[in-house]
Amino acid sequence: MSGIQIHTKFFRTFKVNIESECKFFTIEGHCKSQGCAVCQCDDNNIPIPWKKTDLVHTENYHNSNIIEKDTNEDEYFWRVEEFEKDEGTYVDLKTNVEAYTGYQGQKIWKLIYEENCFKGEEKDMCKEERTLNRILSGLHASVSTQLCELYLNDFEQKNKNYVPNWPLYFQKVGDYHERIQNLLFYYTVLLRAINRADKVLRNYDYNTGDFVEDFNVKTIINDILDITTLQCDHPFQEKDFFTSIRGKQAKIYYQNYIHNITRIMDCVECGKCKVFGKMQVYGIGVALKILFSGDSTVQIQNLRRNEIITLVNAFVKCASSVEIIENMFFRKYNFYKSLGLAIFSSVMTFLLFLIFAFYFKD
After folding, report:
1. Is 233 within the bounds of a domain?
2. Known binder of ligand: residue 30?
3. Residue 147 contacts residue 198 (beta carbons within 8 Å)
4. Residue 281 lies in a domain
5. How many structural domains is the chain composed of?
6. pLDDT in tens, 103-125
7. Catalytic residue among 41, 148, 267, 270
8. Are 101 and 35 in contact (CB under 8 A)?
9. Which residues cross the membrane (predicted)?
10. Which terminus of the chain has a lower count of CB atoms within 10 Å, N or C?
11. pTM value > 0.85
């Protein structure tokens, strides 16, 4: 995935509700750091075809006064986005860089793990239960990796100078083999979902009203899909899931947990962190819908614009995190190599000084 950029208007323009009320605890105050602030899209930067579609959705919603479920109940329960009410604003995922803002999200991750993971010893869990826990752990590792790659010491400086923070990376991810393995597992899940949606993604109408931009999107998506096809030699085997009685029960928990995690994202005090948190959780929800819906073929064919945006962005983010692993280990190696050479040079200089001092003391 190295070198592939998805900063086209289609993939960088993400509709998200950042004003939803937190239902889990009282937020005493939002992050005041400049790094936490979200820059919303100017109306002129929103694709005209999208604004027309939004207007139709809004009129339909107000005329019905209800949120209509699709005829496929299973698909409805996998849905995690906020389209039905047409709530949210457009944000630019390129302008709003996912980087370290100083916000500490321990409370959020604790809530996710305590309320939305299967409990007990891993050896006593069924495959479905272990899988969801690994996906959430992989998401956590991916987010931590991205924040360590784009680390900022001074949040108030005008010209942002992001630098990799490899010591923090190893503190958060690199020193934990299980976390790296879960990140790789999370990648295989997203990879399989992208691969299964290949035909729809290649033929989707990427219409932003800008011919050149839309052509570039088709080129980018084809490049991504060509790569995923080559990488999917040993794909995630979704057909083996939810076949046992316990597995079928776990499917209901999957759906509830994904819905719950999207609500937990409303409790993130950092605006920018909330945007990228929601985007990646939505991407997971879309991936699971593609893989596990009762009639997944129908669900893939009916993917919505925001679902495609979140799925592809989540996948590219995760792929980037996987590539960063090697870079971080290389940086650590170079640091200790340079440190070792510096120590060796200092020791040799000191020994030479002692030798000269001994022979020429008279």
Report:
1. yes
2. no
3. no
4. yes
5. 1
6. 888 899 999 988 777 777 777 77
7. 270
8. yes
9. 338-360
10. C
11. yes
